[in-house]
Amino acid sequence: MKVLCSGLNVVDILVSTPSDINIGGKNACEKILLQGGAPAGNAACAMAKLGHEVSFLGYFGNNPLSMVAKSELTMHGVHGDFFIDKKEASPAIAVVQIDSGGERTVLYSTKSYIPFSPADIDEKALKDFDLILVDGYDTEINLHLLRLANDLGIKSVLDMEAAEMHIMETMLRLCSDAILPFEAAKNISGKENALEALKVLSKMTHAQVVITDGANGAFALQEDELIYQPAFKVEVVDTTGCGDSFHAAYASALLQGFNLADRLLYASYYASQVAQYYGGRTCLPNKSYMEKYCPLFIKSK
Fold it and tell me: For residue 261, with 0-12 CB atoms within 10 Å meaning exposed, 13-18 middle and 19 or more buried, which class applies?
C-alpha cells in the first residue's frame, strides 16, 4: 500500500550529555549520533520498514544537511519521487541532549528551512496513494494535502503537537485519524482529563481521535467507550522518535484493517521497541518482527 508522508524535515545530532559536564571546557561523551529526524521523516522510515511503499515530500538543496537527510530516508527504504531539488533549501537541524536519566533537551534551528509550497506538487499523482500522513508544522502544504485526501477519499493520519489554534482545529476536522499528545489535546479541548478531552475533540471532528501520554499510555473513544492502551514496560534508553513510531505503526495497522484497540496495541508495542535504543531510527522493527513478537499476534495464535 502506498503512503505519502509530509512535514518538517530535520537532521538530528544526538548527544549523551555527561552528568558532570565541564561548562566552558571539553567533555568526552559516550555517544554522539547523526540521524534524520522529525515526525514525518521518522514515520516514513518506520512505515517503509513495515512493508509499505512510502514517499516523503520535501525540498532538498546542495548542502551537507540535505545529503544526510536524503541518504537517511533512502537507507530505510523511503522513495525519493517527491524529493524536490531547491538550491537554497536545507533541512532544519536539532541538537538533542540526552542525560543519564533519559531526559531530553532539544536545541534547534529552522533558519535555512523552506516550507513546502502546494504549487510544487502534482495533485494528480496523489490519487494512487492509500494513506497520507502529515504533521502540524508544515501547515500550508499539509492543510492542502488533507483537503485533497478528503476529496479523493484517501485515509489521512495527523500527527500534531502545536500550531495556531485555528489551524489545529481545521486540521483536526479534515483528517480521518488524529493522534495528539496529551498537551495538545488539553490546549484544544480546554480539558485536563483525557476522557473529557476526547469527548470534546470527538464533537469537533469526524476523525478518530487518539491521545498519547508517553509512559501513561494511549486513549481513544469508540462511540462512548473509552479504550485505554497501557504503555509497554521496557528499559528505556532514549524516547527520541517514540511518538513518531507510534503514529507510523498506527497508520500501518489502519491500512492492515485492524480495529481501534488493536491499532493502539500495535502502535504502543512498536514504540516500546524503538525506546530501547539510542536514536529514533536505530531500531525500526519490520513487519515480520511485529508478527513474531507483538502480543497482538501472540494472543491470537
Answer: middle
DSSP letters, 7-32, are S--EEEEEEE--TT--TTS----S-E
Region of residue 55 (left: phi > 0; alpha: psi -120 to 50; beta: else): beta
Answer yes or no: are the C-beta atoms of 202 and 191 closer than 8 Å: no
Q: Which residue has the cell 495464535?
A: 301
Query: Which one, of 37, 40, 29, 39, lies nearest residue 65 by Cα?
Result: 37
Pairwise CA distance, residues 98 & 15, whole Å: 6
Set of cell numbers at residue 83: 524529493
What is the spatial distance between Cα 16 and Cα 33, in angstroms, rounded to a whole number?
A: 9
Q: Please report, as a single letter, which amino acid is at residue 214.
A: G
Average pLDDT per block of 10 residues along the chain, 301 residues long: 96 91 90 94 98 97 96 97 95 91 86 94 94 96 97 96 89 97 95 95 96 96 94 93 96 98 98 95 97 87 55
Within 10 angstroms of residue 188's Cβ, the number of other Cβ atoms is 20
Q: How many CB atoms lie within 10 A of CB 280?
A: 30
pLDDT of residue 300: 57
Shortest CA distance to 204 belongs to which of 158, 264, 267?
A: 158
